[in-house]
């Protein structure tokens, strides 16, 4: 691996800030292009009892985004819906590395778990 210096740690927050986030495992069941964006993909994500649309800036990061179908990852599901590129995103994908300028990777469970399983 190349030399890497992680970004500085952000300032402390109250533990309650973390407890307020609802982070769950979801399975990506479909990946579609968002034609009005140069970076967004539309993910259809199963959380066991329901499916959500989550927009993620993955278009430039993956040669073949269809390889994400069937993969589990971590998502924040209790954020207010956000309009991006004329569409609504119903959560956010956790990924690793983007903020540090390295090729991002999905934050995934160690082993398959039931869709909708909560983190924490």
Task: Give the gist of this structure.
The protein has 120 residues and is mostly beta strands. It contains one helix and nine strands.
How does this model look, in words?
The protein has one helix and nine strands, in the order αβββββββββ. By secondary structure, the chain is mainly beta. The strands form three sheets. A five-stranded antiparallel β-sheet has the order 3-2-1-4-7, with no helix packed on it. Strands 5-6 form a two-stranded antiparallel ribbon. Strands 8-9 form a two-stranded antiparallel ribbon. The longest helix has 6 residues, at 15-20.
The computed structural class is mainly beta
| Adjacency order of strands in the biggest sheet | 3-2-1-4-7
General form: globular
User: Unreliable stretches, pLDDT < 50, 5 or more residues?
Assistant: none
Quaternary state of the chains: single chain
Distance between the termini: 30 Å
As a percent range, the share of helical residues equals under 10%
The biggest beta sheet is recorded as: 5 strands, antiparallel
């Amino acid at each position: 691996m190349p030399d890497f210096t992680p970004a500085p740690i952000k300032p402390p927050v109250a533990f309650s800030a973390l407890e307020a986030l609802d982070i769950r495992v979801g399975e990506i069941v479909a990946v579609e292009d968002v034609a009005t964006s140069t970076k967004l993909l539309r993910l259809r994500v199963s959380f066991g009892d329901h499916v959500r649309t989550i927009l993620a800036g993955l278009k430039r990061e993956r040669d073949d985004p269809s390889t994400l179908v069937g993969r589990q990852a971590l998502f924040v599901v209790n954020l207010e819906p956000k309009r991006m590129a004329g569409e609504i995103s119903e959560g956010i994908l956790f990924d690793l590395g983007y903020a540090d300028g390295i090729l991002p990777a999905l934050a995934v469970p160690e082993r398959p778990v039931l869709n909708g399983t909560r983190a924490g």
